[in-house]
Model the fold of this input.
Amino acid sequence: MLDYKYYKCNDNNNETIVLLHGLGGNYGIFSKQIATFKKQFHVLAINLPGHGKSPSTSDYDKSFDSDLVVDELLRTLDKLNIGKAHVVGISLGSVVAHHMLQRAPEKVKSAVLGGAITRFTPLATFLLLAGTAVKRFVPYMWLYKLFAYIMMPKANHATAREVFIREAVKMKRHDFLAWYKLAFTVKDTYADVQVKGKSVPKLYISGEEDHLFVEPLLEDTKSDKQAHHLVLKECGHVCNVEKPKEFNAASLEFFNKHRTEHVPISSAL
Done:
């Protein structure tokens, strides 16, 4: 069972927001969201396999893949009697959310996807392949730090970059490498979201300086009638950390539009 924290709103009738972090992080990266979100919703913050106190990727009796991750998420929701939830996914968490939309769209009321990844640019693909060539010979944290600086190179990205590097140190090498392999499935993971997850409203929040991912995202999602976009100025990849006020306000507005019992936007912000 995955490690999680479940924050209950005072109103027992409120719906639940599920938080999915990025590679090397943990649910602590949502510290600037939880306090705000739990005023309006129950909040379920989850550590994905290989992160925090969740099981290692090697603890399972079958191959570690995206299906296994979604199975674990669904098992956690079932344990907590959460029939349907709103989902927030950041970076890698957006990839997991996309796979959840493929596998179990009926479990998702709406989704906010920050720093979302739908496919890799030629530069990003080259970096992944280069990393694959040397990953068995160099400490994984060298790769992680290199990618962190390439993805988040500017001074205003420093806080987000440092948070992810600091938390990734706690991750075991074999867990990092297991997730690294899944990076090559990103394009396939998104491929039929518009078909199987077509009924689920999605808000993509990206930083305009997210140079590896924002352009492919905007191109890939432009024909999705349920996809909405917010591009934040002077912001990089990890937009919930760099621009928490803007991220929180847009997320709450979106979730309140798509909850079962609509709450006026003015009272939600």
Summary: The chain has one domain: 4-268. The chain has 13 helices and seven strands.
